[in-house]
Amino acid sequence: MTRRRPRTRPAAGLLLVLGVVLAVAVLGGPAGAAPGDTAAGSGDPAHGQVLYQASCAGCHGQQGEGTQNGPSLVGVGAAAADFYLQTGRMPLAAEKDQAEPGPRAFSQPDIADLDAFVGSLGDGPDIPDVSPGDLALGRELYLQNCAACHGSSGAGFTQVGGRYAPSLFDSDPTQVAEAVRVGPLLMPQYPEQVLDASQVDSIVTYVEQLQVGENRGGWGIARIGPTTETVVGFAAVALLLVVIRLIGKRAGQ
């Protein structure tokens, strides 16, 4: 009796090969980028220059030298580009005295490339690497350096000439640290010699605490500040006394 040979199963072998390929792809195998390609968002200054020429050069000059419509970007650093782009303040749709925050005009990979190009124009502050800081120290530094403009609660204040120090409630940690280093608009710059990295981290930690906004004393009135809240409180008490008096008069009739 002739013994039959076991049948081969090519489909099973094919499935095994496909499974290995899929596992490599999922677990982080080598990407299929062509030689010389730059991964999206890795900070490619060459691509950043292309974006810059299309969207920024009209105001800031072909090489970032500045024009009558916009300041020089030479030496402002990647942190400045990242702050204005991440907060949607740039590019401006129309010339204004104060750039206002809004939706971002670029994707995150494109912002990284623009940051890299602007950073290559000269020495300037890099994008800060923020770490948890000391909350008590951050409160002390914030009250010394920031509260006069942004308010003790971080809600912001109107400044001279109609300009304003914006609220900090919607700023992420990196944007707060960038603002400290860059000094946007009327805000002064705080270089490493004035506030070191650990001090900036502490300020950021305290601002994050302000953003939590716990109101344990009742209605916080949007945390618009202790002076205004006191006035509102006195007005509410006065109104309550008037109502009580009116009720008493009606009851005596």
Secondary structure: elements and pairs:
Layout: H1 10-26, H2 45-55, H3 57-60, H4 77-86, H5 108-119, H6 135-145, H7 147-150, E1 157-158, E2 164-165, H8 173-182, H9 197-212, H10 226-252
Antiparallel strand pairs: 1-2
How would you characterize the overall build of this protein?
- The chain has 253 residues and is mainly alpha-helical.
- Among the domains are: 45-119, Cytochrome Bc1 Complex, Chain D, domain 2; 135-213, Cytochrome Bc1 Complex, Chain D, domain 2 (Orthogonal Bundle).
- The protein is 48% helix and 2% strand.
- The protein is built from ten helices and two strands; from the N terminus they run αααααααββααα.
- It has helices at residues 10-26, 45-55, 57-60, 77-86, 108-119, 135-145, 147-150, 173-182, 197-212, 226-252, and strands at residues 157-158, 164-165.
- A two-stranded antiparallel sheet has the order 1-2.
- A hairpin with a 5-residue loop joins strand 1 (157-158) and strand 2.
- Helix 4 runs antiparallel to helix 5, helix 4 crosses helix 8 and helix 8 crosses helix 9 (197-212).
- The chain is elongated and about 85 Å long.
- Residues 1-41 have low confidence and may be disordered.
